[in-house]
What does this fold into?
Amino acid sequence: MKKLGWLVIAAAVVAPLASVADAEACGGAIWRESNERPKAKPTPAALVAKAEKSMEDGKGDVAVKTVLEAYPKLEKAAAGKDAMANRALRLAAVAAVRSNGDQSVVGAKAPVSYFDYDYGQDVNVPAKLQAPKTAEDRTARLEWSIKALRSLHEQSPNNPTITGELGEALAATPGHETEALELLSQLSDKDLLGTPQAYSALARLRFQQGLTKKSAEALQRCNAMTNKPAVCGPQLPTNPA
It folds into this structure.
């Protein structure tokens, strides 16, 4: 009888302990499940908007890395029906031009994102931009920008902003100066150049052609549009021509 009593007591003690263990196991499983779910990735629209803000802030390298997060294969892209992808393409092309090829999707290592189930957290390795190693590499990056912006221009031939950016790209790339001067001059004559960078490119091209007076006029327009002297470049001689 005494032995039976001990068995009853033991059973009474073990049962609650088993219930606690089961509850902890269940709770742990729930915790793991809730923490092992990858977070939703930002949408392409959110990433492109973020990249555009970075460009406005003068952070072209950050902008390029961000659009690569949205479109890892942007280097192979051309203008298409996806308006958001077109915005990303345009931004990447302009960033390369305004950095003289330093900030480019060409040759960049694509970003990598995955969920680490061991640590229960997202891991994001950002894109890595590659600096051009030779003058030829630099020119190739600028040529890529021309190709990208030309495809956008062909899709929207009456968009003066894109036309001006194409003119910038042409002006920055050896062998395209004549076309660049024609495009930028046409826009300037209609008062449709919308950026100081475009006026800076026009001033440089006109100066190279010996049109110093018109060059000075373009440079004056550039300086009126920005408080950053580096954008417009050095002040050029103004001998009438």
Confidence is low (pLDDT under 50) at residues 6-11. The longest strand covers residues 112-116. Residues 42-132 form one domain. Residues 2-35 form the longest helix (34 residues).
